[in-house]
Each structure stands twice: as C-alpha cells, then as structure tokens.
Amino acid sequence: MRPWLPFRLAWREGRAGVRRLGVFMGAVALGVGALTGLHAFQQDAAAAARGEARQLLGGDLRLQSSSPFDAELEARLDSLAASGAVVARVVTLASVVQAPESGRNRLLQVNAVDGAFPLVGSVVDEPRGSWTRFAGGGTAVADGQVLSQLAVGQGDTLRIGQAVLEVGGTVRGLPVDLGVQTIVGPPIFISLDDLPETGLLTFGSLAQYRAFLLLPADQDPDRVARELRESLSGPGVGVRTARAEAEALADGFRNLARFLGLVGLMALLLGGIGVASAVHVYVQDRIPSVAVLLCLGAPQRVVFQVYLLQAVALGLAGALLGIALGVTLQFALPTLLEGVLPFELNPRLRPWTLLAGLAVGTWTAFLFALLPLLRVREIPPLAALRAQVESGELRQALPRAVVAAGLAITLFVLSAFQTGGIRSGLIFAGALLGVLVTLGLLAAGLARAARRLLPADAPFPLRQGIAGLFRPGNQTSAVLTALGFGAFLLGALLVVEGGLRASLSLNLDGGEPSLLLFDIQEDQRGPIEELLAREGAATHLIPLAPARLASLRGVPVDELAQAREVQGWMARRVFRNTWREELSDTERMTAGRWWGEEDPEGIAQQVAAGAVRVSMEEEIAGELGVGVGDEIVWDVQGRPLTSVVTSLRRVDWASFRPNFYAVFEPGALDGAPVTYVGLVPAMDPESAGRLQNTLLAQAPNLSFLDISVIRETVERISGQVIRVLRALSAFAVGAGFLVLFAALLSGRFRRRRESALLKTLGAGSRTIRGALLSEYVVLGAVGATSGLLLGAGGGALALALVFDTSASLSFTTLAGLWVGLVGLTVLAGWSVSGPVLRETPLVMLRETGG
Amino acid sequence: MNLAVEAREVAAILGPSGSGKTTLLGIMAGLDHPTRGTVRIGDTDITGLTEEARAGFRARHVGFVFQTFHLLPALTAQENVQVPLELSPEGRKLSGRDVRARAAALLERVGLGDRRHHYPSQLSGGEQQRVALARAFVTRPGVLFADEPTGNLDRETGARIVALLEELNQEVETTLILVTHDLELAARANRIFRIASGVLAEDRVAV
Description:
The complex is a heterodimer of chains A (850) and B (207).
Chain A: H1 5-17, H2 22-51, H3 53-57, E1 61-65, H4 71-82, E2 86-99, E3 104-113, E4 124-126, H5 130-134, E5 139-142, H6 144-149, E6 157-160, E7 163-172, H7 178-184, E8 187-191, H8 195-198, E9 208-214, H9 221-231, E10 237-241, H10 242-295, H11 300-336, H12 351-373, H13 397-419, H14 422-453, H15 460-468, H16 476-504, E11 515-521, H17 525-534, E12 542-552, E13 555-556, H18 557-562, H19 568-572, E14 575-579, E15 587-592, H20 601-608, E16 612-617, H21 618-624, E17 631-636, E18 639-651, E19 662-664, E20 675-680, H22 685-698, E21 703-706, H23 707-746, H24 748-760, H25 765-803, H26 811-838, H27 843-846
Parallel strand pairs in A: 3-8, 5-7, 14-19, 16-18
Antiparallel strand pairs in A: 1-9, 1-10, 2-3, 2-6, 2-9, 4-7, 5-8, 6-7, 11-20, 11-21, 12-13, 12-14, 12-17, 12-20, 15-18, 16-19, 17-18
Helix pairs in contact in A: 1-11, 2-10, 2-11, 2-12, 2-23, 10-12, 10-13, 10-23, 11-12, 12-13, 13-14, 14-16, 14-25, 15-25, 16-23, 16-25, 16-26, 23-26, 24-26, 25-26
Chain B: E1 10-14, H1 21-28, E2 40-41, E3 44-45, H2 51-61, E4 62-65, H3 77-87, H4 89-93, H5 96-109, H6 125-137, E5 143-147, H7 155-172, E6 175-180, H8 183-186, E7 191-196, E8 199-205
Parallel strand pairs in B: 1-6, 1-7, 4-5, 5-6
Antiparallel strand pairs in B: 2-3, 7-8
Helix pairs in contact in B: 3-5, 3-6, 5-6, 6-7
C-alpha cells in the first residue's frame, strides 16, 4: 500500500461531504477563541502591571497609615533620606470642594502633597509651570474634567474646608490611589503646607497618610521594606513595594481571567459536543461509502485513518479560526473594560499562547471526534449490500473507554490549569460533567415524560411531532444538551447578575439615603441636628468612637499577632465603634443576649468587675477568636476599656447603612472622644446640593459621601464586568446554537422522508407543518426548561456560596428568556425545514430502489 | 397513453426498470402532477385538484404499499397503522379508542397482534410489510396502489404477503393497482398492462 493513500483518500472522499462539518469547525473555533483571547488578555494585563509597577505605586516603596507617622518612623524616613532615598509625602482625605463663583460643589479626593511629589511619572500641566508654582502653596490643581464640573477656570477660587485656594491650572499624569479614587471621586491636589488651614484634619477624620520612597540603585526595595516592617512597633503602618503592587494587580487580573476563562472552557466543551454530534451524523451517512471501501479491499485501519484525518484537519482548521477569534477578543477586551483598568493595555501577539490555543483546540476536537469515529471500525462490508445491518452489537468497549478516559483527563487538566489548582480543577471539571449529565438526564426525562403523558387522543400533529424526537438516529440528546447548556449559562448569568445588582442597590427603608455626613464633632452635633431638622432632612446622628484592640481574653494583641493567631492588620486597625439601644434592621443576633436581658452568671461577674457589654459581628469575632463571655480590652485613644462580649450579630454589609463590628451598650463609651455620622434621607439632587452648601457654611470640616455617586460608580464597574461576562457567554451560547443548528440540519434528510411519506398517506401541509412545529416547540421547551431551571439553581447556589447573597429571581426575565429560546429553536428548525415542506411525495416511490 | 381500471379490479403494470412505471403510478395516485392529460378516480378529476386537495383525497380514498415498506421509524406498529385513520375525515370522527381498536384488529388480522407495540426496527422485513398492509387497508380505501410489494422480500415471505393482500382486497373490495416485474404476481391480476419506453399496452384481460 502506498503510504500516502489514507491522505489521498481522505481528501478525495472528504471534499464533497466534509462541507457539512463546517459547523463542527465553528464550534471548535468559538471555544478556542474564548480561551485564547482571555489568556492573551491576562498576559497583556500582567505585563502592563509589571511594566508600570513604579508608576502604579508612585515609587519603589509606599508607606501608608490612617494616623500621622510617629516619631520613630519619621526618624527612619530621615535616615533613609540621608542615605540617598527620595521621600515624598501625601495626605489624602475626602472632602466637598466648593466653587463660590459658580455655586457648585463636588466631593473630591483631596491630596495634600509636598514638593517632591510625584517621584515617578511626568506631570503634564496647563498652563506650563503651574505644577511648579503650586508647590509654593496657595493654589489647587486638578484634572481638567474636575474643574469643568465645578465650572471654574484658572484664577477662580475654591473652598476646601476652611481654606480658600486659587485654581492654579490643570494637571494630568499624576499617580493616584485607585481604590480611593473609584469610591470617593476624582482627585484634586493642594500643597501640604495649605492642609492645616483647611481644618479638615480634625479628630476622627478619614485621612490617609502616605510616604513614597525612591531608593538609590544599590538598595533593594524588598529588603528596605522588610527592615521597615520589622522595626515598626507602632500600629497601623502598611509597607508596600512596587513589585508587590504589580504582582497583586497581575494576580487580580489572573483571577479575573481565570473566572472568565471557565466560561471559555464551557464554550470549548460545548464545541466538543458539537464535534461529536456532527461526526456521529457524518459517520452514519458514510456507512455505505465505508462498506464499499471495505468491499473494494481497503483495510479497516486505513478506512479509519481516512476519516480520522478528515476530523483532525477540520479540528485544526477550527482551532486556527478560533485563534483569529481569540486575537479579536484580546483586542476588544481593553475597550470593554475601559475605566476599570488602571493602565494602558498594549495587546501583543504571543506565539506560545496562540500555539497553545491551536494545540488545545485540535486535541479537543480530535478526542471528541474519535468517539463517534470508532463506529467506522465496526461497519461490516456487508453494509454495502444490505441497508439495514444491525451494527449495535459489535460495539468495541475498550477503545471507547480509552477515549472517554482521555476526554475526562483533558477536561480535568484544562480545568486545573484554568482554575489554577488541582483541587479546584477537579471540582470544576466534576461540576461541569455533573451539569452536563444532569442536563442530559433532565432533558431526556422531560422528553420521555412529554411522550408518556401525552394523551392518546391529542391532536395528530402534536403526537407526530413528539414521536419525531425519538426517531432512530435522532439528535435529540445533542440538541437538548446544547440548548440546555446555553440556557443554563444564560439562566445562571441572569440570576447572578440580578442578585449582585439587588445586593448593590442601596435601598433603605424604602427610601434611598442620598448623603452620608462624616466628622461631625461633639460640639457641632446640636446645631447640625437643628439645621437638618429645619431643612426637612431630620436624621439622628450616630456616634463613632475610634479604638484599637489592646488584648483578647487577657492576651495582648501584639503577642497574638506575632504568634499569627490574629492577622497583623486586624491587630493594628482602628475600629470605629458605636453604641446603640436596639439592633438595626440590617443585622440580627446569632448568639448571646441583647442588653436589658439578664446576663448569664459568667458575664454578670465580669460586668460587676467593671467590664462594659459589647456585641461583636460574628465574622470578625471568628477572626479574632472570641465568643460570647470572652473579654476584649480596647485602647480608646490611649485609655484602656475592658469589655465583655455579650452577643454576636450577623450583619448585611451590602446594605450601605452604617454598620459596626463592635456595638457597645449605651453609656459604655461615655467620656471617650466621639465624632458623629449622619445619614440624610433621600432628596432630589438640587436640594441635596443646597443642603451641602448650608452645612459647609456652618461646619467647613464636614465630609460627605454622596451615595448616589458611589452607587453610580459601583454600578458602572460591575456593569462593565457583567458586560465582559456577557460577551464571553455569547461565545458559549453561540457554540450551543451552532450545535443546535447542526443537529437539526443533520436530521433534515430523515424528516424529509417522513414528511413525504405522511403526504403520501394523505397528510395536508398544515398537518406536516403542525408536526414539525410541535417537534421544535417541544424540543425548545424541554431544552430551555431544563437549562434555565438548572441555571437558576446553579446561579442561586453561586450567589449563596461565592457572593454570600441571596438570589432575586426575575420571573418575567426568565419567562422572556424561555420564550426567546423556544422561538430561536423553532426559527432554527424552520430554517432547515424549508425543503421538507416543498418536497413532492413522489420521492417515496423514487427511493424504493433502496 | 390511455388506461382505465374498473372498480374492484386488480390491475398489474409490468415493465423493465426505467420504463416509467413509477412515474405512471405516481401520477395515477396523485403524488405528482402530469404535464398533460387527466386522471379520474371515481367521479373526481384529481388532476384538477391542488396539492392540498389531492392530499385530502388520498386520505379518504387511496392506500399505498411500498417496496421498502416505508413505515414511520419513530412510531410503533400500532401507531403506524393508526396514521391514515387519523389523517382521514372519517377517521377523525372516530374516538381515539375506536381508532386504536380498528388498528389493533387489523394487526391481529395480519397476524401481528402480539407485535403491536414494536418499532419498525424491531420487526423483520415480512413483518414490516404486513404492518404496511394493515396501514394500507385501515381506511378501507377505494383504490390501493402497490409498488413492488414483494420486491424486498424473499420468495416465501413474498408469497405470504401476496396471499394476505388478496384476502384483504376481497374483504374490503378495493381496486388494486400493482406495479411489479414479478410475472407470477402479475399473473394473479384481472388485467395486465405492459409499459416500455413510455408506451403502454394492455396484455390481456383475465377471465
């Protein structure tokens, strides 16, 4: 035998019929495209994060604290500066900035910076030199957009706290803290020298103190950071290197890409099912050709190779197409995620990523094609003579088991790679298989139930349509799996999206609060309450008493932190505590008793010994390792306060209502330094603006959070992530639709014969149309129902497990989706059934030749 | 070409492959439209009918038996036999129970009472053709067209099918038009027509 025979045969035999496998290529392409695109995007993001590490952090090293640096740290910074390091300092706080000329105001992130700032990056100022002048004090600069929102230009005045500053110009290219920026608002810059004048640094203000360091070349940032961390005895100072910042960002994008990649993996799996289904039908149609080849003396092995070569060639072509799709996705993602990315992405083609996509796609297509192709080895030459050869009994079990194992291993390896761990890979692969099997069983059960429960007297077209689902060689399970999987993804996405949106919405007692007031001092409390009442915005002010942990169950927190029994940041953090008579309606008790109820004996003893009662949030209590009856000693501005935990609470943090880790009994914090926060109920934006101005005139040190602005920001970002998720789901749903279409197309021949036969027996075209329509409607309904049910269930589970929030099902949307999916199935079915309806019944006689 | 078959006659059309047998049968049965000429069945000129009307006419008056049986693969034997009844106006007047009873009785009559709930793929060729016979006679059609009814069966089975066909034909008093190249089968007809290159000639009138 000539060595190239299989190739030549594959080409000759395939060029005519292989076109019908085009759908198979499409399915592979979508899966490969989603995976490759995401992977490339993640590499782009990681490269950008590493490349701009210093810019992102603002130096080699950053120190950050919520209180001013102590003398010890200042000394360390001085000695570093003496050894050649450049130090820049920034104090950041949120404040409403007023423009007296235009009467506008806006909540901004006020950055008070010294002359050395910024250490890296180049400032673009307009007019030139305004940044240098600004260092001398007396002016404020900001992004052009911020200034236009306040309707001020160069030379106008701005009121920041109690200080009045001149607008020096606009700047771009300054490093800003991303986290604060996104939540609070855009930044404005003032000189550190002007900060005291604003009066914003009152007790309890939410200021961040930061120092940026640029080290001389001979000093290793990691070593300096380590030394700083070790030498810092005071609480609350975070030290971060540029490299760690870049890695954290890269990690973040890796996680995002991993999560999104799972959807891509689903698309690939669905593509695989499409491959198996298309090849199955292809092989069935090729039985006569195979038998003839065998009769002509071709060895079984060669015939098998012929078809395997065809499948691999198509898989390769599909994977190539997928890579093209992936590159498109790679270049499209930065646009979809605009505003979420803290840096510019420069998409770059990486040969290895593309090659990996090619390999994964071809291999997956190969394996999925192999399963139905094994059938080719079981076709007897006799099939050339007799049309109906029973070939079911000759099934070779071993090769099938080997291929199935190969598929399982591939799925696991891809899952493990995508989720970044063996355990998570196993879980995901198992869950995916579970979903597929459940979908298959559920859909098959529903279809069977439809057939069994259908009354024998039901209209003929309906019965004929349902019987059609079970015609021999039917692709019902492939169609139902594909459709169901698409519906599953859509349903899950819908529920997750709905749940996230619901939990992000800031509903409060029916009305949404519009403003949060911070930093109200004890002596301002009365006048502000009066003012709010006068303005029709009556609210009661909530006390805030900052405190740190001193000891837990008698052990100092420093020791616990060193023994790693308590996380370091928690030992250092400033808890903003409050006292309250009642539980709020966004929390509920999970253990212990509320004030006023009789104390258990142990607690009563501690109270008698002078401890005050405190109720802790259950998760933080778990982190701290304390429970009901345990003692917590607090450091309230230098004074120790002994408390005993009397109850634990579960808090709905997503409610945006002020909630607290520690709530004390009334009177427990008497004498402690306190500020107040106020929650101003919903009002229209204009009145809110007026109220802010009035409040600021009376108390310039006040900080506001405009909750509608926060909500817009949160919704914008989550909306973008959801958009990306949707775009990726489109790949999977698209693959599902291709499989659906291919399966329906492959059944066309049988359906045509059946319709012609029915016509011969006297069926009118209305009957035929009715039968086809019932078949597609039932197919769509069963697929959509099982998929959406499973998807909604899975989505609700994901919400509960991952996002810790409950599902809020929109039945109207689900119903709309259901109708859409059924309509799509009918449409797809109808589009492949055109010839069936036009066929004259004479074909029945013509095909009697057999 | 002119051809007239009287009611309750058995007519056989003989001819080699490609002679136009199947086209003739198709036109006579109203499965296709002739370019010229007319076909009358009873009092109806079926060439004047639309495709829809012809389908309705077939449902009321015409039965078919095919060489390759052509059972609907997704339906059981019983369900296959029910189909013509369910498509015909008379059958639609019957209750579902009556439809099932008539189909069952006919299957019993062709000796498949115990195979009623089998699918075509579970039946042998002879059994499938017996189901097809039951299906053809269930509406008691005025005319039955049979296209090589024994063509795909071995001799013995074929003979049994022919016997059954004749019995049912007599019971129902159907006009039977057979297309075949089986001379033995043709010999049992009242009238034999030969067709060659599109030309038709009557062979003889049987007594």
